[in-house]
Amino acid sequence: MIPDESGGKAVKFSVLVAVYNAAPYLRACLDSILHQSVDDLQILCVDDASTDDSLSILSEYAARDERVEVIRLDQNQGQAAARNVALSRAKGEWVLMVDADDLLGEDALAEIERTIKRFPSADCIVLQLVRFGAAQATEREDGAMPDTTFTGEEACKAAINWALNGLYAGRRDLYQRMPFDASSRVYSDDNTSRIHYLLSRQVAVSAGEYLYRQHEASATHRFDLRRLDFLAANRSLRSLLERYQANTDILTACEEHCWRNFVGLYLQFRRYWATFTPQAHQQIRDAFKASLQAMHPERLPRGLRWSPSWLFVRPFSLFCAYRRLLSGLKKIFKPI
């Protein structure tokens, strides 16, 4: 639980914006929030030690609109940690986050309010995910239709399987029980949504839209050692689900999710192996060994556990040998 430093008058929504070198997109992001038809909100912006003009843009908006509050961090702490700083000052009944390069759809907060009124037992209200970017047309992701509802356990499992996105407004007490997962600098934010869904009495889907900007400069598109954070985030997810006593179906879905990520990431690192230094090679090995050791193969679906392409093998040295053998066999028996 994080300390509550909010104080002051309560509002309906607290919108958290973690900012790091987002100057080219920041004005559009803030405008999309400020122009909502619902004005009973607090916008908490945390500048995570940006080196561009982000802080000056934030200061400009704060001087213009009292709903915008700016917090400056002296050292870069990562997105989840920055959001938790904002969370400690949130005074909204409902909390949602918007990335500094993304947009909140027109009337998104009004749509969330409508869904809250229709489903008063809901603890999380999920937004529609719309992807956009300079290189592609706007694309609405297939997902749950507006006014669809889930139990907390159903929503958690759906989110692990990527059948339900993690863009939502949640009651503030959920965030106080489970703040943003800062186990890794990137990739661990999805863990927070899955646990919030698990802890919810009901999860409802809104017609409101969240516009997610896709661009190659994103940390989630580069391939470097930061990809190892995937493994740390997956270990954290497993630990959190166990702590909050998730059911067997959810733990099975989690283990399959972690194992598929493990194998896929291993194949990616093997592909780029020559681009890393000897010191990085050891760091990569250590990360994979730790993740493999933390696995629970008994939770994997039987069909996956014994599939040649996904066969669970431990220790890591034997796993590597098996993957090399499998790769060699695939080359030999490749169809002409």
TrEMBL record:
<feature type="domain" description="Glycosyltransferase 2-like">
    <location>
        <begin position="14"/>
        <end position="133"/>
    </location>
</feature>
<dbReference type="InterPro" id="IPR001173">
    <property type="entry name" value="Glyco_trans_2-like"/>
</dbReference>
<dbReference type="GO" id="GO:0016758">
    <property type="term" value="F:hexosyltransferase activity"/>
</dbReference>
<protein>
    <submittedName>
        <fullName>Glycosyltransferase family 2 protein</fullName>
    </submittedName>
</protein>
<dbReference type="Pfam" id="PF00535">
    <property type="entry name" value="Glycos_transf_2"/>
</dbReference>
<dbReference type="InterPro" id="IPR029044">
    <property type="entry name" value="Nucleotide-diphossugar_trans"/>
</dbReference>
